[in-house]
Write a structure and sequence with these properties.
Alpha-Beta Plaits; RlpA-like_DPBB; SPOR-like_dom; Barwin-like endoglucanases; mainly beta; 5-stranded antiparallel sheet
Amino acid sequence: MRRGILLFTIFFLSGCVSLVGPNDYSVKVKKEVISEASKRRKLRKKETVSDSKLKADRKIGCKSTYKVWGKEYCVLKHSYGFEEIGIASWYGPNFHGKKTASGEVYNMYEMTAAHKSLPLGTYVKVINLENGKSVVVKINDRGPFVPGRIIDLSYAAAKKLGVVAKGTAKVKIVALGRKEDGHYTPENYERGSFYIQLGAFEKFENAEKLKNKFVKKGIKAKIIQAFGLFRVVVGPQLTYVKAMEERDRLRKIYPDAFVIRVN
C-alpha cells in the first residue's frame, strides 16, 4: 500500500529540544540503517546517515537518524506515551515473508505495523477514528514514506480496524511501551519538563502565525524546535500532573492540545 510523510503531525514526544534562537551548537548522532529486508517499496533504499556533528536544534531528542529518498527521519529515544493523529494504510501479500527493519520476518497475519520514528519494539494502540474500532500492534518496521500517511498496518491489524476494503483511515496512535511478562511497560514520565503542544509545522512562519493567534488571546505561547519541526507550545511545567491541569484549561480553547515531555 502507499506510504506517507505527515506534514502536520501531532506528537506526544519526549527528549531534549532547544528553544528557537541564534545559539547553535553541535552533537553527534548515531547511525540507523534501514534494513535491506524492509525495502517494501520499489524506491525504498538502505542509507546510512553520517555521524558527523549536526546542529542540536534539529537533532536533539533523536536516538539515531536515517534517510529515505533524501529526506532525513528521527528515531526517538523513547515513546513516553507518544500520541499521533493521521492517516493509516496497510501492506500485505507483496511483502509477506520478507524481513522488516527490525530483522523480524513480516507476517501479514500478525498484529504489527511500520512507523517512521517510534523505537522498534514499541507497542501502540491504534484507534480508527472513523468507526471507533481499535487494535494493539507492535512496531517492527519503518515507514510509510508516501505523503499523507503516519502508520502502515499489517493485513491482520487493518482487517480488525475495518481498513482493508477502503485502504486508508484516519486513526489515533497511542504508545503503550514495551511488553514485558505480558504487560506493557511505559517509561516513567511523572517528573521532568513538560510542555503543552498546540501545533507543529515544517515552516517557522506557519508556527509563528499560530503562536500569534494564541498570544492575542492572552495565552503565553512560544515556539520550540525539535525533530525537524517548529512546535507551538505553552510551558514548561515541572510535573506531569501540573501539565495535565494546564492542558485541560487550554483544551477549552483548543481541544487538540496535549502534553509533551522535554529533557
